[in-house]
Specification:
Chain lengths: 508, 508, 364, 364
Amino acid sequence: MVEVFEEISPADFFYRNRDIAGFTNPSRAIYSTIRELVENSLDACEIHKILPDVYIRLLKESDSSGEPNKYRIRVEDNGSGLPSDIVPLAFGQVLFGSKYKLRQTRGTFGLGGKMAVLYGQITTHSETKIISSNGKSKIFEFHLMMDIKNNKPEILKKETYHNNSKWHGTIIEFLTEADYTRAKAKILEYLKQTAIVAPYANITFVDPKGRFYKFDRFTTTMPRPSIETTPHPHGVDVETIKRLVGITKVKNMKDFMREHFQRVGETTAIKFLDFSKVDQKRNPLDITPEEIVLLVNGMKNYNAFLPPDASCLSPLGEESLKTGIQKEFNPEFIAVHQRKPSAYSGFPFIIEAGVAYGGNIPRTGNILLYRFANKIPLLFDEASDVSWKVIHNMVNWRHYKISADDPLAVFTHICSLKIPYKTVGKEFIADRPEVEREILNAIREVARHLSIYLSRKNFIEKERKRLDIFSKYLPKMASFSTKLAKKEKEPDIMPLLRGLKKYEEQKE
Amino acid sequence: MVEVFEEISPADFFYRNRDIAGFTNPSRAIYSTIRELVENSLDACEIHKILPDVYIRLLKESDSSGEPNKYRIRVEDNGSGLPSDIVPLAFGQVLFGSKYKLRQTRGTFGLGGKMAVLYGQITTHSETKIISSNGKSKIFEFHLMMDIKNNKPEILKKETYHNNSKWHGTIIEFLTEADYTRAKAKILEYLKQTAIVAPYANITFVDPKGRFYKFDRFTTTMPRPSIETTPHPHGVDVETIKRLVGITKVKNMKDFMREHFQRVGETTAIKFLDFSKVDQKRNPLDITPEEIVLLVNGMKNYNAFLPPDASCLSPLGEESLKTGIQKEFNPEFIAVHQRKPSAYSGFPFIIEAGVAYGGNIPRTGNILLYRFANKIPLLFDEASDVSWKVIHNMVNWRHYKISADDPLAVFTHICSLKIPYKTVGKEFIADRPEVEREILNAIREVARHLSIYLSRKNFIEKERKRLDIFSKYLPKMASFSTKLAKKEKEPDIMPLLRGLKKYEEQKE
Amino acid sequence: MRNKKSESSIKKKKEIIIQTLQNFGLQIYDQLWNCEFPWTKMPSRSINNIFYDSNLRQYILGDKAVKRSATNIRHIRPLTQMIWTALFANELSTQKKTSTLRDVFYSAQAYEMSFKDQQESDNIITDLETVIGHSREDFNVFPEERSAIFGDLTIEYTLPGYEGRRLNLTSHPDGMMIGPALTNAEFADCKADKVIAIEKGGLFTRFVEERVHDKFKAILVHTAGQAPRATRDILRRLNQELELPVYIFTDGDPWGMHIAMVIISGSANAAHLRDLNTPDAKWSGVWASDIVEYKLPSDKLTELDIKRLHELRKDPRYRGKLWKKEIKTFLNIKKKAEQEAFSRYGLTYIVDEYLPTKLEAMEE
Amino acid sequence: MRNKKSESSIKKKKEIIIQTLQNFGLQIYDQLWNCEFPWTKMPSRSINNIFYDSNLRQYILGDKAVKRSATNIRHIRPLTQMIWTALFANELSTQKKTSTLRDVFYSAQAYEMSFKDQQESDNIITDLETVIGHSREDFNVFPEERSAIFGDLTIEYTLPGYEGRRLNLTSHPDGMMIGPALTNAEFADCKADKVIAIEKGGLFTRFVEERVHDKFKAILVHTAGQAPRATRDILRRLNQELELPVYIFTDGDPWGMHIAMVIISGSANAAHLRDLNTPDAKWSGVWASDIVEYKLPSDKLTELDIKRLHELRKDPRYRGKLWKKEIKTFLNIKKKAEQEAFSRYGLTYIVDEYLPTKLEAMEE
């Protein structure tokens, strides 16, 4: 028996293993398709500080009854658009994109959009149409298919139009197999939660029955965009150093450290190289494999680096989070809190948390949990998430006089250069100790605020009741004691009742 | 702000996302490393009907105390060996290998071995040594590193030796970072369970403290090897047809169907093409995209294909499974059962199940579950697995007079061209209805056998007790009734006791 | 004293019981002597063999019988236990000693006949009741619970050491305990013309204090909740032997109502026994309609109360007009009240106002 | 009859109580008259103010006091309730009527003073006990439970309608109920020379049947589990007024042991009261060592039993040698036995063998 060896393209690999990216079946696939395209659209707006308008339309194409069926998906945004030479690769070649940098974005694998296209193509064998403009003079329209075996886009048609209205943005449209009936609830929940973390976006969804779901902009304040950054020494491995050595322009190791890593200045560079026993005058080009290992070990064990810089991150901001919650739940009380930046394994992260009470939040007997990571709502496998663990096993709600029967929702958002997902499905956050601690502290902070609010509310209620009680019981005391003491005349209690209010004020 | 677009290599992608393949941290990584290498070794033997001898050694290299640390891993097998031109690619290039065929193998992604090498390289920056021979005149030794950025192997050194002893097999050795202390229990459990499904293998593991763990061969009977096969029409998508059209040598669609799909003969091909409204005389080279879609839709909806052929699969076989269980647990009773082949989405699969009672199986208050898929033990996320669901929610154990307190272990094995894993981690099986039903039926079958065994055991026990009861109470009846009736002489009960056994036999 | 309707049968009854037990022993003895596996038959007490007899106005067992045979491995132990229990009961009765259910449980151990638990030994006692057709008090096995009696009735003890001694039941104003001695006493003289049975102890004391026995010429009986069988036996005898009407006052809820009903018509559990019920006794309150009429402090009916009322509605014993009406009223007003609830109008209101009104109404 | 150590104080005690209640009313009245928010002080009953007094051989309350003041919103309701309860108790005592805890609960409604539940009204009664230093039975509020007494003791009633009447407590062999009438009776004549208190009713009946009162010249008292306070009061009076030694027989387990202890040294719950305990009474069985010596049928101690034993070991009342030894034996043998367990040697064994042996040993 002879084994045959062969090489396959990355597109082919993901085609064979599309479950990895969430394209398991027609129901999950349409959910993933919408999600990936919406996230690309939001990223395309936010990085360029454009207030997002995202329009999603799903049309049933074939008229056969039942599911799964063929649907035409169309997603439009008003983002920055793509350069015309990039368009075919960005949608037709796996492992090509802009998300491989050290920068906070919604997607982390840069794979989702292509998988949506790929799934559409293998289920319907039809082309994908992309229209894009950067707002300058021209609009480009491409009709593409993917050559999966060779991981290359095939351009079937390319048109160029005048851009009279200076429109900018990207439109993508293709046929795909879907089971919308089963996916519907999750899709709507996804859009609703996305609206919570992006209250500055207009999101419109037209479903196959022609129903409009509109999530309107509530604020024009946008979070600061994320910024590309250099790695922190604590998060570096051998491969990273090897690559930097290959591209660096500096001539000695001291400058190498200062140039390519955050939080490394003159003094730190010298001290660190000393610690690692690497000569600071050495040319990076001459460095040996053994020295690279020395450097990496040094970076792991050297404790005097400043913690990773979080200024590159784009958190929601307390106002945005508050606005989003207000908009969707109109609660009686909201508290939000953003923690100071922290870091795990060399990656900075920021935790934001919110708590909302009353209003449209139902009493379910459980605290509702809404989880977000880099502005993406996480909808699946809630019970495996670190936030769930914190809320159910770590926060002592009784301490805040809050019970699971209260109409309560908790919101957690983590933003980071690298979200510590436990699985590729991007559905739940691993319980790294640093992350867990920050979430715990954030939730405690907002719970404290809620607790104060609830106490005050209680207090006012109580004051009203106390006067009632005095008025009820003092006359009885007078009457009973008169009888018991075998007296004729009852004592007058009016002076006591009159003095009561003043007396109580003194006591406070 | 300008976005920079770039292409990355598949190696680079998996380097960035190594969590996907189970290389999350030094503890999980060493477990995955051993597992992937052992599975490659077993596959290399079995496909060629060689009784496997696998030797694993782990040495601590650096002498710093604590974990993680650097370890040297070495895995040797007596498999078929690799051709010398293939070796560098097989271990140094991601998405290259022999596992991309339609054939039952342990690995499904063809990724594991390379990820082990890649992880070793990025944590220790050292080379990988591979020695291999196909048993002919020469032995080849390679020293490699991976060029991750370009997904290419770099050959540092290559040696050729004379193969005097006609040795065949592969040896791989490299340095890697590991946390053996934390991974130890899982590694040993993995090897133990592997020994259960491969009782025909010798597996030896020497751990860093020099302890030997030996799992000896118990039988020389091996399961039949798996065979490469053509796809079944039910499992085909547009991309598959497109590719077949590109490589086919036949000249009309009828032959195209017969040549490239299983279960399609002359008659079926004609009827099916009729059904799909595709002309049987048409040359595959001329076929249009629309016709491809017609074909795929036809294949999904045409009900008269025979079910997928399972003769390509390599199940364990009832004897092997029984031997494996016997060897590890020495139980009081074993029942095993292999179901007839079944299929899901065009992929044939076979379920095998076993149940073992007593012996070295502990009473834990829970039924122990051992899960296997294509001869791989599944150790993680048990509660998400379809077998777990079947055992806990679907099988009515009381019906079989079996309780969770009994010393009971259940074994399930699924073999298939494509295992329906829920995640990339290859840890648990999705609950596809077809698979679920087969597992349920298999477990019911073995539970029925166990139930009969236990009933018989009970019956003998009971018979012993009943005579005791008569011997105890009849004399008392005699004594009490004599006193109560105020008689002097007690009646003689010996005739009754003597007659008892016969009387009871009549009653049965 | 009124004429007794029949000569009291205490002594005669005891003789019959001793003989019946002995006969049971003889039956088993003879079977063994004939090399037969011993067996016995008794009426089945399963739910589908319990019928309401509207002539007797109580539950009775039907024709279905169960056979307990030593050929059956599951029967041999209980059958042996039953023979032993018969022997024990026979000895108790012969020696005029009493015993409790708990004592029976322990005594068995002397014969290496240990019962698994109290439940098992209680069941065997009930089996024995069924076989010989008399209640366990008749063969001197008494429960722990004790209720009390008070009023102008003179009894004559039959207890060894007390034979022929008489006592007037107003002697002790805390009430006289109804135990084995009183149960086995003859009625010698009676000045009362009615019996009032009361569920609650507090109210019983109140009635004594307020001299209800005197003012209303009544014998007061404290049932202490569900009346023990010895107490139901006394009530029946007061009614049958002395022809006194019996009025029952309970809490105004389904449970109180049922306390009255068990006195009147017996319980399904005792369907295998006769002469424990007093068919002519009358439930006199607290009725659901009293709650409305007297505006009594009340609690809401619980789920369980309501469920119980629906059960009672289907019960053949509750076919009478009064019962139907009160069950309906309970379900309408969804309230219940305790006897003590009358205290809201002062402690003596119940005696001064409620009781005379009620008795007058009942006598009409 | 032996000489009574002191003149019985039933009548005098009642007068004192009526006066004490009235004084309490006067205190509140005066405070209101002076435009003060009413308040009262009483000893704290919290756990850290309960101390064991080895002279008195009972728990007592320490010096900590709690003030209940109408200035405090949480106090105003219970303080009013307490004043009402005092009024109610005063009326009961004046009119020589009795009442139950349940009656108190309902009676309050007439004054629009509804208690939330029985628990609340019971607590207020305890407060009142603390304030006036007498137990609720002294102001005529009795619980439902009744225990019984039997033996050659003649009592003289003080109850209205029965004043001066006498009754010998062997009159009714089922035992005489210990209710308000007996509690308030004077001891007139006594031929017995000891008191035997018994936990279980079945055994009490057995003792009467076996004429223990006669053979051992004993007054038999049935405690019916944990003895009600009226019964503890009677036991104390028998011991103090008539100088009779008191022997207590209970089940052989931590709970039975504690029934004896509460009779001897009182309970922490009643630390605010005096004259309820009988320090010279003796626990005479069933001891842990009896289980071993008599090979009694026994059950395994439960987790709860063992926990209880460890608690008792730390309890200051259990400092005595006997107690320490028996607790240790319980923990060693890990078994317990009921009084009825002696039935395994026949029904009369406990009277014929065990009791005389024990009494002999105790008198040494």
